[in-house]
Amino acid sequence: MKREKTRQVKIGKILIGGQNRVLIQSMCKHKTSNWEEVVEEINECAKLGADLMRVSVLDEEDAVSIKEIKKHISIPLVADIHFDGRLALLAIENGVDKIRLNPGNIKDESVIKKIVLAAKENRVAIRVGANSGSVNSEVEALPLSLAEKLLLSVKKQIDILEKYDFYNIVVSLKASNVKETISAYRLASKSLPYPLHIGLTEAGPKDISLVRSVAGLAPLLLEGIGDTIRISITGDARDEVRAAKRLLHDCGLYDNYPTLISCPTCGRTQVDVRPLGAKIFSYLEENNIPLAVAVMGCVVNGPGEAKNADIGIAGGKGQYVIFKKGVAIKKVSEEEAYDTMIREIESLR
Q: Which residues in the chain are classed under CATH 3.30.413.10?
């Protein structure tokens, strides 16, 4: 698919925008001043595929902890700032790579100017991040759709940043409503040159968030909109990273990732497909093996689906048939199925 071309922005050692790949990010769930827990969480997410991580900066202790966190991580760090511009300045002073400012609650131009000048001096990027819960108060009263209000909110703050010759900008316009989110990002892609960080805000617990986020973000990605992505989940940050990788992969934007083809099972199924499929996919994911693997419950659909996979397995009564590119290579018992599949997968690496 053709990606929308946006301005290229540098964050630490990585580049967002232009025609660079869509980057994955998540946000730490611990208080930032508990820096050892934060470091562990960031490094676990980085190992799974996160390209950058965001931390909340609630107070001075959080902002000062950034200096220590930066010593122990290898990916760029983003500071989430609300209400208090002084905390943005302190985060920059302590070495953060990017700050997120909310135009709904940081509006004083004299404060924004100080932040911009410090960001320029320290080569720190700024994300202008509006969401449905904090639209600019002047904009909120206007007779506009939420999408239009989000866009106007970020434009007001971008105008201030540009006034002081600052262009190292990333933009987000998040709503918890799928249609409003899609509308807001479509409007932004037509009117702003900056890279877009896409996501839904307050998307909910894992099961709800995955459906809602895919509904809202897949259309944008398939239209070429989005330079960096976060799947917001009420839960583990690692799940956010895994979900983002899977979504990007299924949209054809993340090649180095496994594909699992697995049947939903039905009354024809005479073997226990679910644990086998889960174990095989975990192995592929944990070992970063970008193969297409089919795990099927019967021979009705199995060989046909396996034909499109690098390797596949289809179950019968108490046994499985293993296929490579649709050609049967061996039969194994249900007890031997997992170990045999892993050996065959390893032979294809």
A: 259-348
